[in-house]
Specification:
The protein is an alpha+beta fold. The longest helix is centred in the last third of the chain and has 29 residues. It binds flavin-adenine dinucleotide (FAD). GO terms for molecular function: oxidoreductase activity.
């Protein structure tokens, strides 16, 4: 195994950090306070090619391989103080563009990927609903075929980038009733047309915000990552061209499952950069801040706090790079991506808490960055599937049936 970065990867890392430090995040404090999307920084990311890193050159991207993309995102996370901007980039790439890259038709890719790389179209993933969060099979938004269109009805919630998005990847029900309110993911057979397995009743669509019947209705105010706007999207008889179906009808859940391993790992590459930034800050503070006549880093309690920050960073990097490598080799990475999602998101929370402790009151007060870092970190164990649900998936991958479905027979 070769753990070294190539000279090109090292160069890209250096160049990305320099770009992010010089050109991004100048107004983060005010944007965070106002929950404002940094549109000018978004445009700078587009100009710099960030929004097309994993997209092939023929569709307007930079064509980086998955591992190199991960290294670039790590560098972006390190250099950009605005974690919300990095999260917005990640939603655009791993909540939206990746669906087209992996499952889109030639026409869909040609039509949408270039403007997405150029930052002209902002992408989002509209999956969650008021009554369906972790339980994806329980979603209630419907899509009914009508000639060469599908008619969508329903409400999506918690959509990151939603208020500024132009294109949404939407999962909707094309057959059967929504399951009852039984066990999570019970998918109780509805017996309605399009019945069969609950997994075969969902379809994925690319929906543009400009269609009649698509409304971006409300914005949510969040604890952290406030510069990524989050909203609701309502579909009220929205007529979506059948050409915007992603994959085939009924394949939505399979497509979601085949794509989610990308989201669960690549979305968290930026966390590595944040962990490194927090570690460096903690070392610097523990070296310069003196109490009882010596630097506080000389106290074992503080030193161990910092040693643990380093351990978490290095282990998080190993599991994420492994997913990057697996995807570069075109191999399945569901188990590793699930482990990565749990470990990296939870490690960032622990590291942000440690950084706050090392800085004392300076960690707790506004204006010293760390309280924002902690608020931003807290979303990671929730979005892209909560830690509890990931642990359930991992247990099922290890052969324990019924952990999520509540059905030990695994029916
Ligand atoms: C910052 C942020 C950004 C987000 N961005 C998006 C987005 O862009 N698009 C989108 O569609 N959604 C988005 N979400 C929503 C996110 O995907 C959901 O919050 C998440 O899937 C959990 O759903 P829920 O909030 O409805 O919680 P619920 O599913 O109601 O879960 C509540 C609690 O019950 C636990 N629980 C539920 N089921 C099980 C089970 N089977 N086993 C064990 N525990 C269980 C959960 O772990 C959690 O602790 C975002 C959320 C956040 C916080």
């Amino acid at each position: 195994m070769d753990f070294d970065l190539t000279p090109e990867q090292r160069g890209l890392r250096r160049e990305t950090i320099a770009f992010a430090q010089a050109e991004l995040g100048a107004g983060t404090e005010e944007d965070d306070r106002a929950s404002r999307f940094p549109a000018a920084d978004w445009a700078r990311c587009a100009e710099h090619g960030v929004l097309g890193w994993p997209v092939p050159v023929r569709y307007g991207g930079r064509g980086l391989d998955p591992l190199t993309t991960m290294i670039a995102l790590e560098a972006l996370g390190y250099g950009c103080r605005d974690n919300g901007l990095v999260f917005a980039v990640n939603n655009h790439l791993w909540g939206c563009a990746i669906y087209l890259l992996l499952h889109g038709t030639q026409e869909q890719k040609t039509r949408y990927l270039k403007p997405m790389c150029d930052g002209e179209l902002v992408g989002a993933h509209a999956l969650s609903e008021p009554d369906a969060g972790s339980d994806v099979l329980g979603l209630r938004t419907t899509a009914e075929r009508d000639g060469d269109h599908y008619v969508l009805n329903g409400t999506k919630w918690f959509v990151s980038n939603g208020p500024v998005a132009d294109v949404f990847v939407v999962l909707a029900r094309t057959g059967g009733d929504a399951p009852g309110d039984g066990a999570p993911g019970d998918g109780a057979p509805g017996g309605a047309p399009g019945g069969g397995r609950p997994q075969d009743r969902l379809s994925a669509f690319l929906v543009t915000a400009d269609l009649p019947g698509v409304r971006r209705t409300r914005e949510f105010t969040k604890l952290g990552l406030r510069t990524t706007p989050m909203g609701a999207v309502e579909f009220d008889g929205a007529r979506v061209p059948a050409a915007n179906l992603i994959g085939r009808e009924g394949a939505g859940y399979a497509i979601f499952n085949a794509t989610i391993e990308w989201e669960r790992a690549f979305m968290f590459a930026g966390h590595l950069g944040v962990m490194e930034r927090l570690l460096e800050g903690a070392v610097a503070h523990a070296s310069s801040r003196r109490q009882f006549g010596r630097p506080i880093g000389g106290f074992q309690a503080v030193a161990h706090e910092i040693a643990d920050m380093k351990i978490r960073l290095e282990l998080a990097r190993l599991i994420l790079y492994r997913v990057g490598w697996l995807k570069r080799e075109r191999r399945l990475a569901l188990q590793d991506a699930t482990i990565a999602k749990i470990f990296v998101s939870e490690s960032l929370v622990q590291t942000a808490m440690a950084a706050v402790r090392v800085h004392g009151a300076r960690g707790y007060l506004e204006g010293f960055e760390l309280e924002r870092e902690l608020r931003d970190a807290l979303g990671g164990p929730i979005f892209a599937g909560t830690s509890a649900v990931q642990r359930g998936i991992l247990a099922e991958l290890l052969g324990l049936r019924g952990v999520l479905s509540g059905d030990p027979e695994g029916r």
